[in-house]
Amino acid sequence: MLVLVSSVNEWSGASNRADNPTLLIEKFERTITENASGLPSTDLLQTALSGYEILKKEQTITRPEVITIIDFSLPSNQERLWVLDLAEAKVLYHCLVSHGRNSGDVMAENFSNKPGSYASSPGFYTTGETYFGKHGFSLRLNGIEHGINDKARERAIVIHGADYVSSEFIEKNGRLGRSLGCPAVPEELSAEIIETIKEGTCLFVYAPTESYLSKSPVIRKLPSFKKG
Asked: 3-state secondary structure string, the chain?
């Protein structure tokens, strides 16, 4: 497994607080207590924000004010999606999110970029346009990592609401229901989340696998990473 390292001195633009992941994390930690909305782990947040900064500088992201992070190292019966307001350093949403039926049961362990795989794809995405489909109000995703998630459009991988993403489903089954590969969110939050992150924001789906971390075009651009 790869251990990612990105220090203040290593990161380009370190003198600018708004462009520095480490300083932004410190700002989040000052404004959010551990027992309130919570944050992703520091390592994950560092990686997500470092990748986000690369994409922002490359002008891949057109709406840099928010980032969405999904942590598939956590089981589906835990809240593992965050939408973060980067300007105000606050958590906008922290909720449950599904993984694909062929990615695993409680844990997402298998990932694929292949059409028809019904598995989740990790990596960095940008959000696209909204539409109304079989799952109601939905949000298209653009996978920007070649060979990892770039077939998201072809696979119709989107964010949508689902009734199987709920605490009631967990109480009955011990886990969430699973999608065909989409990161489905609770129905009661889906419209709000989609409106908040649509049209050009950054989404990072973390998978704790060497096959992703060692091949990710974005991760490989980070200032420093090493095998641990």
From this structure: CEEECCCCCCCCCCCCHHHCHHHHHHHHHHHCCCCCCCCCCHHHHHHHHHHHHHHHHCCCCCCCCEEEEEECCCCCCCCCEEEEECCCCEEEEEECCCCECCCCCCCCCCECCCCCCCCECCEEEEEEEEEEECCEEEEEEEECCCCCCCCHHHHCCEEEEECCCCHHHHHHHCCCCCECCCCCEEHHHHHHHHHHHCCCCEEEEECCCHHHHCCCCCHHHCCCEEEC
> pLDDT tens digit string along 51-92?
999 999 999 999 999 999 999 999 999 999 999 999 888 899
Question: Does the 2-227 domain belong in CATH 3.30.390.50?
Answer: no
Read off the pTM: 0.87
